[in-house]
Design brief:
single chain; two-stranded parallel ribbon; binds adenosine-5'-triphosphate; binds L-tryptophanamide; ATP binding
Length: 336
């Protein structure tokens, strides 16, 4: 049967901690949903994680746990590809060539670099600075059409397009220009304790995030404590009511209801009822994922087999691109 060629997706997540509700709503939930329409490659970005100091044994453990969690979310490793970044060395090979085609000034403007340098002033390393080049390599090496990410990654996606476009101009058509896929409602889930800041798995305040592995009691407790305001009305207004608006975005994601419908549903009710409802739909959504996670993580051999197979399949695609790029830029390649 002649089928039209499906578009390709690539995305990544760092094994820097247990994924939060922000990672779930902004990214990995969509990764699972997009599998029915696209050919997908999903990657655990362990090399990117090294830009911040990691405890080696923990990084190793988290990498495997993250793989199990992605499988639990519904990533299908037979019809799509799940792999670990460092298992495909071609990403680093392409990153070097791209770094030589990226300007210092362009990298200096990246807000994540500025944020993370401010957060870790004792370790402003070269990897943190060239982070977006490696990310561009991750995407361009597979000629991905679409990249599902949260809002915080859109600047990195834009620089990937700039790099690809420049390379194509200098060396001839080589890379596909990738598009972002940023969800409408949950592109930026905010911290529960400081709702003007992004919810982040590396936050030191455990009440600021809900983890994908949190049980129902923890979820209820964290939402009950979530910072709101004194106005007492469930109304969507990001600027003046960031806490309530954030909870509404979460509720909307899991119920499919619009902001108007949510406002109507909780008209005349207090924040207590609303927070409990948000906690319930969140716990209901995460419960099946958590059950699967426990089951899959118990079978280490299966997880490792999936990653081995994923790396081999990704490497075949990636090596082809590197070969082509090396030829285009004039690196001598000998017949094999
Ligand atoms: P770290 O705290 O280590 O910086 P992180 O929580 O930001 O990590 P990443 O691994 O960098 O997580 O991101 C994985 C994906 O999740 C990316 O697509 C990112 O845009 C998305 N994401 C992260 N945090 C949020 C959030 N609060 N809301 C929506 N999407 C998010
Ligand atoms: N920088 C991303 C993780 C990441 C990524 C990618 C996302 C690494 N390589 C390629 C999309 C495409 C982050 O979430 N911080």
């Amino acid at each position: 049967m002649a089928e039209e060629k499906r578009k390709r997706i690539l995305s990544g997540i760092q094994p820097t901690g247990t994924p939060t509700l922000g990672n779930y709503i902004g990214a990995v939930r969509n990764w699972a949903l997009l599998q029915s329409e696209y050919d997908c490659l999903y990657m655990i970005a362990d090399l990117h994680a090294l830009t911040v100091r990691q405890v080696p044994a923990e990084l190793r453990r988290r990498t495997r746990e993250l793989a199990a969690l992605l499988l639990a979310v519904g990533i299908d490793p037979k019809n799509h590809v799940l792999f670990v970044q460092s298992h495909v060395p071609a990403h680093c090979e392409l990153a070097w060539v791209l770094a030589c085609n990226t300007q210092f000034g362009e990298l200096s403007r990246m807000t994540q670099f500025k944020d993370k340098s401010a957060k870790h002033p004792d370790n402003v390393n070269g990897g943190l600075f060239t982070y977006p080049v490696l990310m561009a390599a991750d995407i361009l090496i597979y000629n991905a059409d679409l990249v599902p990410v949260g809002q915080d990654q859109t600047q990195h996606l834009e620089i990937a397009r700039v790099i690809a476009n420049r390379f194509n101009g200098v060396y001839g058509e080589t890379f596909t220009l990738p598009e972002g896929y940023v969800p409408a409602a949950g592109a930026k889930i905010m911290s529960l304790s400081e709702p003007t800041k992004k919810m982040s798995k590396s936050d030191t305040n455990a009440n600021s995030f809900v983890l994908m592995t949190d049980d129902r009691d923890a979820i209820v407790r964290k939402f009950k404590r979530a910072v709101t305001d004194s106005d007492g009305q469930v109304r969507f207004d990001r600027e003046n009511k960031p806490g309530v608006s954030n909870l509404m975005a979460i509720y909307s994601t899991f119920t499919g209801r619009t902001m108007e419908e949510i406002e109507a549903e909780f008209a005349g009710k207090g924040y207590g009822d609303f927070k409990l409802a948000v906690a319930e739909v969140t716990a209901d959504a995460l419960a099946p994922v958590q059950a699967e996670y426990g089951r899959i993580l118990a079978d280490k051999a299966y997880v490792d087999e999936v990653l081995k197979d994923g790396a081999a399949r990704a490497a075949r695609l990636a090596n082809r691109t590197v070969s082509k790029v090396y030829r285009k830029v004039g690196l001598l390649q000998l017949d094999r």
